Structure formats: C-alpha cells, structure tokens
C-alpha cells in the first residue's frame, strides 16, 4: 500500500493534480467526493483517499507489533517510528496543496524534497519492520534480497529521466518510483540480512563476506536515493545534472550487482569445497 501510495503521489504531482481541488483539504472543490471521472480533482482525491487508508494500516501494523506475541524490540521500534513521523508527512502534504504562496516553503522545491524524504523514511521503516518481524533470516533470503535489489535498480534505470529510453511522462515517473523503491527495499533487506549474518552467522556464509555485501548494499542505497531525488523537479535539470544522474545510476547498479556477485561467489566456493564420495 505504501509503495503504491508513493507512486500515486508522484503521478499526482506530475499531472499537476496536486494543485487541484481548489487548494482545499480535506474537501475537494467544496465536495467530500468529487465526480468519479479521470480528471485532476479525482486524481488528487484518490491519492488522498489511498493515503488515508494506508495511514490507518500503518497505525494498525504498529499496534500489531505491540499487541502480538514474539516480536522483537527492533520490530516494534521501526513500526512505531513510522507512525510517529506520519503526522509530519501529512502536514507537509497539506502544505504543498493548500498553503502554496501563502507561507514560505509552500509548493516549493524544499517542500517537495521534504515530502519525498519523509515518505522514503516511512517506507524504509515499514520495510525493516516487515523484515525483522518475519523471523530469523537465512543465506537464501539474503541472496533473494540481493537479486531483487539488482532487478529493481536496473528496471528503474529504464524509466529514469537520465536515460533517453522513454519519455519521462507521468506514467513513466510513476513506474520509475515503483521499480526504484522495489530496488531500495531489496537493498534494505540485503543490509538487514547481511548485518544479521555478521552478528549470528548463516550456514555457508562467513562474516567477512556478509560484511562486504552489506557495505556494497549501503553504497548502492545511497546512490539510488540520489537518483530518486533527481527524479523529481528538485533542480533545473540541465545536461550537467543528467550526467550526475547517470553516474549515480551506474554506481547504484554496479554496487548492487557487486553485492549479488559476492554472494554468488560464496555459494560457488562452498559448493566446490563439498566432500565427494565421503572423502
């Protein structure tokens, strides 16, 4: 739900629908529910409705971690922090659509950036709560996370504004964030599972290899976040910024692929060292 909400928010802004509903919130053009046809008012209203349902679900997840049994303290903390900063995200969102021009930092680059960073923080915390709440990791889960990270980052490059492959229209922008965030979540899982492998160890994976994988994933994550920020209109997107974006994409792909390759190499070494015929 949060991943889709992220993409809906990008699509809403890209179509200019974020300034629809006559700058009203929570009403939309003096209505509780606008006409159910594809128009700017409906796009903005649907984004708000999806956000409201998702917000209640985020609160429910946090409550579940506290009321349920067997959840670790870190799981509860991640889910609770997501709820704690949710009002900030709602406030920034309201500012961008209702106070534009009335207060400094309304519908501006700084507010856009804040809206993106806070949303990404919530998404990351929910990802960690899901990963940690799922029980002990394994080497197989770590390898799967690495594969998802590579696939997501590479797919996001195809939709990126830095790559002249598709017109960076609203649907492409939404697809860029869906794939980029999928890659981000894969990297978050890679870091989480690799950290656990360093701490408790996984069968067939030594701490040194896990530490290398974690470092590569962290580096890829930082570069990918840079591309997510450059995917919005936070800078005057000149040829220089396009080159910066391309470099960030290349670094993100290379480091994610390096992490996955390191895990594959560890598998091959383990398989090659297996005893044959009882010798």
UniProtKB/TrEMBL annotation:
The Swiss-Prot or TrEMBL record annotates one GO molecular function as:
oxidoreductase activity
Keyword Cytoplasm set for record: no
**Pfam families, A to Z:** COX15-CtaA
According to its UniProt record, in which pathway does this protein act? Answer: Porphyrin-containing compound metabolism
The organism's lineage? Archaea, Methanobacteriati, Methanobacteriota, Stenosarchaea group, Halobacteria
Q: Which domain of life is it from?
A: Archaea
- Name its species: Halorubrum tropicale
A GO BP term here is:
heme A biosynthetic process
* Cell location: Membrane
Entry GO CC: membrane
Q: How does it sit in the membrane?
A: Multi-pass membrane protein
Q: State the name under which the record lists this protein.
A: Cytochrome oxidase assembly
Keyword tags = Cell membrane, Disulfide bond, Heme biosynthesis, Iron, Membrane, Metal-binding, Oxidoreductase, Transmembrane, Transmembrane helix
Q: What is its main location?
A: membrane
Enumerate the transmembrane spans.
Answer: 46-67, 79-101, 113-134, 141-162, 174-194, 215-232, 244-263
Keyword Disulfide bond in the entry? The reply is yes
């Amino acid at each position: 739900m949060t991943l889709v909400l992220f993409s809906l928010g990008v699509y809403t802004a890209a179509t200019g629908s974020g300034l629809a509903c006559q700058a009203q919130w929570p009403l939309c053009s003096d209505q509780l529910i606008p006409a159910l046809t594809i128009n700017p008012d409906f796009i903005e209203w649907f984004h708000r409705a999806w956000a409201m349902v998702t917000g209640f679900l985020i609160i429910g997840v946090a409550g579940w971690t506290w009321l349920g049994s067997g959840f670790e303290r870190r799981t509860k903390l991640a889910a609770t922090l997501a709820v704690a900063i949710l009002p900030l995200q709602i406030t920034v969102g309201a500012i961008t659509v209702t106070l534009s021009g009335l207060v400094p930092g309304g519908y501006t680059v700084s507010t856009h950036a804040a809206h993106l960073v806070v949303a990404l923080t919530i998404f990351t915390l929910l990802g960690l709560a899901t990963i940690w709440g799922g029980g002990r990791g394994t080497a197989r889960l770590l390898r799967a996370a690495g594969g998802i990270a590579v696939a997501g980052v590479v797919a996001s490059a195809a939709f990126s504004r830095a790559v002249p492959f598709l017109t960076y229209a609203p649907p492409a922008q939404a697809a860029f964030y869906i794939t980029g965030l999928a890659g981000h979540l894969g990297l978050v899982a890679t870091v989480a599972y690799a950290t656990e492998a360093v701490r408790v160890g996984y069968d067939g994976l030594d701490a040194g290899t896990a530490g290398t994988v974690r470092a590569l994933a962290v580096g890829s994550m930082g570069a990918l976040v840079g591309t997510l920020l450059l995917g919005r209109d936070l800078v005057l997107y000149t040829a220089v910024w396009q080159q910066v974006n391309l470099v960030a994409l290349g670094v993100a792909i290379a480091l994610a692929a390096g992490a996955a390759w390191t895990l594959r190499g560890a598998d091959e070494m383990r398989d090659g060292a297996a005893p044959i015929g009882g010798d």
